[in-house]
């Protein structure tokens, strides 16, 4: 038996890459170049040897801070370019690499220049807006002043900061409550304040004025004919011109304070028409000059931003790379002489030669007299998990990693999920018409793969594009299962020949007691189309899909148990094979494996057998204590033997075991062995498997349930929407029915049902399949690579 097991393959392709812990001793003069070349290679994950230090206490903290400041300036330039609406394509000619110090100096100069231009532009824009508002107020307020002068007498008008007083004026129709004042009317003349305010503040502004003056004011308003740009937000704002007529110095003070509080700008408007025209000409002249100045300033600013934009992409990449290099250098330690940096990290075993060549090239390019020392270390902790993937397998690997990263060298479920995941999806989604729609969507994503991969997509579109190969396989398997179910938008077709059944008489299709009669060989592939619409359609399809779901579930759970055997054999755990894998296989197949066998026998021969044999029930009953008791006691025995051997060894001459490293597996096993804890853990695991065998088998019935629901929904939309509308002779009703059918198919069957089947297939893999063998307590291999940080937003 052992010889047979030794001859079995090791499943190397199904496991993560073998990892090696290496140590680097790098001279200081070549450290930067070595780390840069390793970042370009992207196959070494550095360990942080300064984890106990804060970021500000590390050696290259100042360089990281400088890179962060340059990143801030580059983001500022990018925001300014986007705000200006410029599109600066990078130059295609090769630009020489720039030193970090020179780049820092250039960025500082460009930033100061742009900030100064922005400041001047804001001041000019504010002045321009004030003059523009002044012009609008002069034009709009004239109408109010002319109408008010029709009720006024007297010639003398006082102009003082935008308020005007007619000392000899007696109003024929006084303001509200003016008759109740005790002082004579001629001591309080009529004044006005003109200005402009945002439209959204107008109602509250008018209400506040009315309350503050207790109604002793007359408020006139008119909208401005043009929108004005707000300098702070660069948005066009709609404003309202107002003129407030009031009486008294106290009211004037209150109105001016309210205008200031609401952000209303007040402008002096002369009552004399001649002065108004002269002032308007002066304002228009200054506006023309300011427009020319603003246009020239905008062109100059755009030229400066374009000069930066041509090299912006290259500069952003350079700064990100430099920051990543110094962050990595901060993970290294100085040796005793302070002349070398010592680093440790994980790399795939196949990459050791490449890393060694890269380090030699970096030493040569930096003209260092001392080479880099590169050697392998003995690892105590568990290595990271690294799977090499391609465009097809990457999406499936991400689905598995969303549940948990595989333990180092553990069997990888993603390899099997490439086939089982889209197939279980298709069992629930089987309709080759809907599968063709999914296929068209997947082919569209594949056809535009190069273009979409270089664009910044939204979250939903990015998810679809990342899973384009998953959608492709789901579509192909859906077409396959749809051909088996013989459903094209719920309509059966005689694709592979004629039906094997016919009606017994002409009333067969309308009868409920007379069925179909078989008169020829069975339909060669899939479900016979004559089952559609017959009285036995639902019982037949329910029986078929329910039994098929059980068979698929038992097959996938057995695959999970077989993978647990290969895991135990790979890690050399014979206890897991003898006291876990074997009783689990016996329990599962004595009950549900035998049930699956009976289903296949009945399908093939039509005969029926006893549901269960006493021998099988007895084997399943024995398998439960077999899972529970032997393993904890075997672990306890191994621990006791090891502990006694260690004690006698210490009494002799060896002192190796006295200094067990605190992080080693042996130290933990000896110090933390707790028999009661192990027994309880095994008890929970055994109960979970026994109960889970029943619940997981029943869980696979979701394949039957969702397939039935999808088929019935398709039938309802086809018969109750499309056929019902097609029964009318009116072309409009037919078009409405076709549109409703198309929308129901697209949004309910192709979107909601796709998502539902996707999530149910995900559950079957995460729980029912992977729960049999997958630990998922590893951690990802994250190498230092410029390719992985190029698109990160800092």
Structure, explained:
Belongs to the V-ATPase 116 kDa subunit family. InterPro entries: V-ATPase_116kDa_su, V-type_ATPase_116kDa_su_euka. The chain crosses the membrane at residues 423-446, 467-485, 548-566, 586-605, 611-629, 731-752. There is one protein chain. The chain has 794 residues and is an alpha+beta fold. The protein contains 23 helices and 15 strands. It has helices at residues 2-7, 28-41, 61-84, 100-149, 202-212, 249-261, 273-329, 352-365, 391-403, 413-429, 432-447, 449-453, 459-466, 468-485, 537-570, 574-605, 614-628, 630-651, 665-671, 675-699, 702-726, 731-769, 786-789, and strands at residues 19-27, 45-46, 158-160, 163-165, 190-198, 217-223, 228-229, 236-237, 239-247, 265-266, 333-334, 340-348, 373-377, 501-503, 516-518. The strands form 5 sheets. Strands 1, 2, 11, 12 and 13 form a 5-stranded antiparallel sheet that branches. Strand 3 (158-160) and strand 4 (163-165) form a beta hairpin. Helix 2 crosses helix 8, helix 3 packs antiparallel against helix 7 and helix 18 packs antiparallel against helix 20. The longest helix has 57 residues, at 273-329. The radius of gyration is 41 Å and the shape is extended. The two termini are 58 Å apart. 30% of the residues are buried. Mean pLDDT is 83; it is low at 150-188 and 647-670.
């Amino acid at each position: 038996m052992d010889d047979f097991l030794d001859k079995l393959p090791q499943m190397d392709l199904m496991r993560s890459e073998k990892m090696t812990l290496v140590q680097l001793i790098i001279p200081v003069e070549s450290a930067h170049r070595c780390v840069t070349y390793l970042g370009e290679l992207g196959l070494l994950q550095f360990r942080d040897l300064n984890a106990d230090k804060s970021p500000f206490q590390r050696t290259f903290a100042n360089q990281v801070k400088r890179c962060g400041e340059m990143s801030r300036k580059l983001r500022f330039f990018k925001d300014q370019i986007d705000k200006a609406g410029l599109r600066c394509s990078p130059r295609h000619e090769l630009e020489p690499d720039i030193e970090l110090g020179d780049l820092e100096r250039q960025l500082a100069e460009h930033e100061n220049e742009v900030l100064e231009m922005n400041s001047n532009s804001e001041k000019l824009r504010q002045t321009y807006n004030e003059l523009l508002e002044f012009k609008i107020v002069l034009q709009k307020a004239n109408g109010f002043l002319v109408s008010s002068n029709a009720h006024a007498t007297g010639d003398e008008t006082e102009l003082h900061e935008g308020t005007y007083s007619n000392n000899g004026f007696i109003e024929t129709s006084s303001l509200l409550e003016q008759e109740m004042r005790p002082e004579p009317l001629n001591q309080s003349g009529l004044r006005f304040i003109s200005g402009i305010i945002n439209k959204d503040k107008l109602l509250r502004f008018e209400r506040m004025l009315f309350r503050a003056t207790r109604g002793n004011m007359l408020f006139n308003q008119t909208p401005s004919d043009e929108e004005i740009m707000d300098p702070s937000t660069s948005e066009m704002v709609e404003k309202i011109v107002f003129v407030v007529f009031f009486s008294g110095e106290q009211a004037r003070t209150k109105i001016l304070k309210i205008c200031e509080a609401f952000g209303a700008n007040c402008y002096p408007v002369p009552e004399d028409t001649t002065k108004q025209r002269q002032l308007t000409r002066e304002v228009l002249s200054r506006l023309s000059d300011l427009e020319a100045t603003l246009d020239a300033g905008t062109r100059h600013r755009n030229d400066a931003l374009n000069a930066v934009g041509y090299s912006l992409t290259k500069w952003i990449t350079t700064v990100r790379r430099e920051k990543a290099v110094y962050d990595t250098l901060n993970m290294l330690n100085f040796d005793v002489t302070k002349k070398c940096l010592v680093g440790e990290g994980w790399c795939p075993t196949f990459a050791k030669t490449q890393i060694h060549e890269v380090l030699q090239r970096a030493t040569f390019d930096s003209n260092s007299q001392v080479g880099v020392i590169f050697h392998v270390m003995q690892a105590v902790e568990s290595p990271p998990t690294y799977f090499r993937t391609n465009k097809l397998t990457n999406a499936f690997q991400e689905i598995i990693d969303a549940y948990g990263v595989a333990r180092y060298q553990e069997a990888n479920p993603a390899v099997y999920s490439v086939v089982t995941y889209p197939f279980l999806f298709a069992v629930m989604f089987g309709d080759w018409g809907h599968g063709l729609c999914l296929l068209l969507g997947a082919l569209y994503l594949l056809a535009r793969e190069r273009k979409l991969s270089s664009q910044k997509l939204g979250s939903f579109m990015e998810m679809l594009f990342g899973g384009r190969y998953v959608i492709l396989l789901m579509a192909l398997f859906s077409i396959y299962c749809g051909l088996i179910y013989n459903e094209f938008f719920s309509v059966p077709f005689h694709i592979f020949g004629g039906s094997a059944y016919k009606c017994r008489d002409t009333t067969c299709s309308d009868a409920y007691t007379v069925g179909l009669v078989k008169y020829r060989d069975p339909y060669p592939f899939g479900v016979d189309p004559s089952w559609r619409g017959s009285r036995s359609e639902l019982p037949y399809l329910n029986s078929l899909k329910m039994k098929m779901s059980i068979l698929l579930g038992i097959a996938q759970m057995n695959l999970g148990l077989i993978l647990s055997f290969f895991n135990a054999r790979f890690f050399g755990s014979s206890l897991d094979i003898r006291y876990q894998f074997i009783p689990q296989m016996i329990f599962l197949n004595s009950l549900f494996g035998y049930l699956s066998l009976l289903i296949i026998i009945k399908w093939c021969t039509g005969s029926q057998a006893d549901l269960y044999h006493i021998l099988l029930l007895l084997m399943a009953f024995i398998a439960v204590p077999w899972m529970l008791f032997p393993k904890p006691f075997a672990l306890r025995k191994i621990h006791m033997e090891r502990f006694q051997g260690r004690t006698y060894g210490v009494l002799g001459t060896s002192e190796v075991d006295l200094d067990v490293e605190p992080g080693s597996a042996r130290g933990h096993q000896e110090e933390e062995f707790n028999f009661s804890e192990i027994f309880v853990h095994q008890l929970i695991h055994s109960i979970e498997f026994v109960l889970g065998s029943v619940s997981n088998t029943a869980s696979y019935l979701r394949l039957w349930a969702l397939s039935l629901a999808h088929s019935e929904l398709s039938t309802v939309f086809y018969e109750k929407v499309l056929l019902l509308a097609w029964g009318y002779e009116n072309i409009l009703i037919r078009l409405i029915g076709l549109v409703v059918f198309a929308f129901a198919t697209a949004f309910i069957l192709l979107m909601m049902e796709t998502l539902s089947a996707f999530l149910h297939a995900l559950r079957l893999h995460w729980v029912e399949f992977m729960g049999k063998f997958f630990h998922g307590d590893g951690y990802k291999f994250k190498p230092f690579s410029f390719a992985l940080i190029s698109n990160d937003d800092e």
